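Input sequence (402 aa), recorded before submission:
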Amino acid sequence: MTLQAVLGSLAKMKVIGLMSGTSADGIDAALVDVRGDGKRLRLKLLAFNITPYPKSLQKTLIDLASGSVFSIAQFCRLNFELGERFSEAVIALANQAKIPLSEVDLIGSHGQTVQHLPKPSGRNKNRTGSTLQIGEPSVIAERTGVTTIADFRPRDMAAGGEGAPLTPYLHYHLLHHRKKSRAVINLGGISNITYLKAGASLEETVAFDMGPANMLLDGLVSTLNQGKKSFDRNGAMAKKGRVSEILLAELMRHPFIKKNPPKSTGREVFGGKMVEKIIESGRALKLTQHDLLATATAYTVSSAAKNIQAFILKKSDLHEVIAGGGGVKNPVLMQALTQALYPVPVLTFENFGHDSRAIEAMTFAVLAYQSRHKRPANIPAVTGAAHPVILGKMIPGRKFSA
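Predicted structure, token format:
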């Protein structure tokens, strides 16, 4: 095969992106038609599905990420078990889309984060942070026969970045505008923001994590109900409660909220330990579980609003906010966010013809596409890396060609 033929075969691809977030509730899988020269990408979502984890597996993953003690043998088996489950998600999506796996050109798998430590430890002489995602990509490539690219965060961290956030790369390609300045807010386990200044280049994108979102809300619901409930459906519990201004003020003093970007965080900061702290404070203040959910919801909104005010509006204009992630399904959270950001309108990805649920999985389809073309896809201004790098590690599939 000539070089021109190889490059031509790579010009457009059907790519499956896989993502399992900090809530560890299942695998998002998106089949995306990706084409373009790297700087101008054309993206079309062809199919999307969610494969839930069994409750027992979700608990295991959350316990692991929260610091519970696991043996090396348990950890080893879990890595391969997740590889099998990611493979099953790929096969299910291909069946749903009614295409054979032989027509899928590439898989991009984020895996399941079990630790994300963006700041270096005292023992690290090279002064980089560290991160770990599991879900063995060799299993995915073997079960599906499709070339798989995974482990997207470590290379950015090796270059001095935080390895996160990575979704701003997709946000830019989907939503940047010549005349309108937009902020994209993802309300996933963690809330994060991408600021797309009108007419700005990819390299001028601003993005960072702002604080907790569904991770904290889900953790409170599960703990307060002994695992009988896993989330606050439609914000019903929060709606019945009252915000404790005392507890909210205490939570807003957390140093991460006012920390300057670039910054990223995860369950290590806003996971089980914070849930326990909130419940303990709630007992002392004689708050109901509904009050705790109302206050945690207000915390998500207040931390986002404070970050937007401090790091976006003080320097730039903002014409509209576009929200995505699981939090958009919580009307109480969305109403509070809309009120907090008024008069800036709060829209959703659906207003622009995109599926909010699929955005993160689509990101890893696009990052895999760029990696396969040997193109950098981190944004150093966002992650803090010293320079652009090609992300991910590639496991060739059975039809791989150089």
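Checked by second reader. The mean pLDDT is 93.
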